[in-house]
Structures are given as C-alpha cells and as structure tokens.
Write a structure and sequence with these properties.
Blueprint lengths: L6 E6 L14 E5 L4 H10 L4 E5 L2 H9 L6 E7 L2 E2 L14 H4 L3 E5 L3 H7 L5 E5 L4 H11 L3 E5 L8 H15 L6 E3 L1 H13 L3 H7 L1 H8 L3 H7 L9 E4 L2 E4 L9
Parallel strand pairs: 1-8, 1-9, 2-7, 2-8, 3-6, 4-6
Antiparallel strand pairs: 4-5, 7-10, 10-11
Bound molecules: D-malate.
D-malate (MLT) binds next to loops.
C-alpha cells in the first residue's frame, strides 16, 4: 500500500522575508510566543467572541469606531505597554473571563498582528504558541498538506522564542512514522534550536531579548503564562479578517 505523500514545511523567521502574496492560498502557522499568540489563545479560551488583528493603531481606531461600543474592546501595545486610550494591553493575564466574555477585540501589536495581517491571503491561517502546541500539531496532522511557519520575530529580526516554538512543532511532527517531512534550512535550524533550548521553555524565554525586556518593565509573570506548554486547548483560526476558535476544535493531545 502506498504511504502518505511527503509534507513540505517552509519556515520563515521574520515576516519581512517575503511579500504578503507569497502566502496566498497557502496554509500558514503564525507564531508570536511573546505575547500576541498567547494572548489571543487565552482570550478565546476565556470566551472572547472574536479577535480582529490590525497592523496599526489607526486601523484599530477606525474599525472600533464603526462597531458597537460595549461589545467591542480595543487592545494592544507599543513597546509592550498598553496603548493610550485602549481598554487592554497585551498581557494575557489581563484577558480574564470577566473582561472578555462575549466581546469582539480589536487587537494591535507591534510584531504579532502585523505578521497575521501579512498572512491574510492564506488559505488557512492558524495562530500558534507553546500554550496551544498540541492543538496546532493535531491540526497539522489532520491537514496532511504543505504549510508555512511564519514567525513574527522582533523588530523585523529573528527572535529565539518563535524559532524554538517552530522547531517544537516540526520535531513533534517528525516523531510520527509518516509522512516524511521536507524541511528547508530555516526549519532544520528551528528544529535544532528546539533540541538545544526547548527542554526548559521558561529559562529560554527569560534569557531571550524580548523576555528580558518584558521582565524589566514588570511583565515577568507573563513569561510563565507564555511558556506553559499545552495549557490551553484552543486553536485560533483567521477567517477573512477575524480570528475565532476553530470549528473543528478537538481536545486530544499530541
Ligand atoms: C508583539 O506583537 O510585538 C508582541 O506581542 C509584543 C509584546 O510583548 O507585547
């Protein structure tokens, strides 16, 4: 009996590496471990109706102006701090059930939501972090198709936490007997980084450039939330311009 066809995985360490049309009709996994991916998964787990990622503050203000006030929240950061006039910043600990249940959240972050916006022409875009890694891996196992991992990075450059998360996804899939995975050099490097740094995620986050910055400005507790592997059974999916929980969500673990 013929085996499953190989899966080609393209890994991008920063969104700027390619034009947004590169993602057209592809399956894309966007990673921003610190902290947009984590915050989105936590908000949806806590009952937020939807997240609308925007690439800049102007769009956030414009879109929220056209929506109904008390069911819409504006959330986002500049230099990791809440944007003036917004209801929430980008700390996953702010997105409690009491605050977000039933709400539409317009969300603007420096690297994360602009990576999501860049991948908006994708056939399917899912949002990944350590906290929902098994949900992501299970989705990709069911998908059985080529995909791109798009790391949000930091200030248009490489960041280790997104790369290690990408490597962990790849290594989990590589542990399956089939299909064969075809990796590019970035994917191989990500897998190696996970081997080196992925065993102690919190330590890796604490030593990362952005993790150290977050700790310095008072968000050290966020690193614990962002590094807690498989703590949230939610798969956020971008459909049109809105992120919601995947309809076919399941709860099995990888
Ligand atoms: C981003 O999108 O750049 C981040 O999520 C920054 C942050 O830690 O708030």
């Amino acid at each position: 009996m013929p085996g499953k066809s190989p899966i080609r995985i393209e890994t991008r360490f920063t969104p700027r590496e390619v034009d947004e049309l590169h993602f057209k009709d592809k399956n894309v996994v966007v990673i921003d471990v610190l902290r947009a991916s984590t915050t989105i998964a936590v908000a949806l787990r806590n009952g937020a109706k939807e997240i609308i990622p925007v690439a800049n503050v102007e769009s956030a203000v414009k879109i929220s102006g056209s929506l109904f006030g008390d069911v819409t929240l504006r959330a986002g950061e500049r230099n990791a701090r809440r944007i003036e006039g917004f209801n929430l910043g980008n700390s996953p600990r702010e997105f409690t059930e009491a605050v977000v249940r039933g709400k539409s959240i317009i969300f603007m972050t420096t690297n994360g939501t602009s990576a999501m916006a860049r991948g908006r022409h994708a056939r399917k875009q899912i949002i990944a972090g350590f906290i929902n890694l098994s949900m992501v891996v299970n989705f990709l196992r069911d998908l059985m198709s080529d995909f791109i991992i798009l790391c949000a990075g930091r200030e248009n450059g490489f960041c280790i936490e997104d790369a290690v998360c990408a490597g962990k996804i790849i290594n989990r899939l590589a542990g399956d007997s089939e299909p064969e995975l075809i990796l590019d050099d970035s994917g191989r490097a990500a897998a190696a980084l996970d081997m080196n740094f992925g065993a102690d995620i919190l330590k890796m986050l604490e030593r990362s450039t952005h993790g150290a910055y977050l700790s310095e400005i008072g968000f050290a507790e966020d690193l614990k939330v962002c590094g807690e592997l498989d703590s949230v059974s939610v798969l956020p999916v971008l459909s049109g311009s809105v992120i919601r929980v995947n309809k076919q969500d399941n709860t099995r673990t990888a």
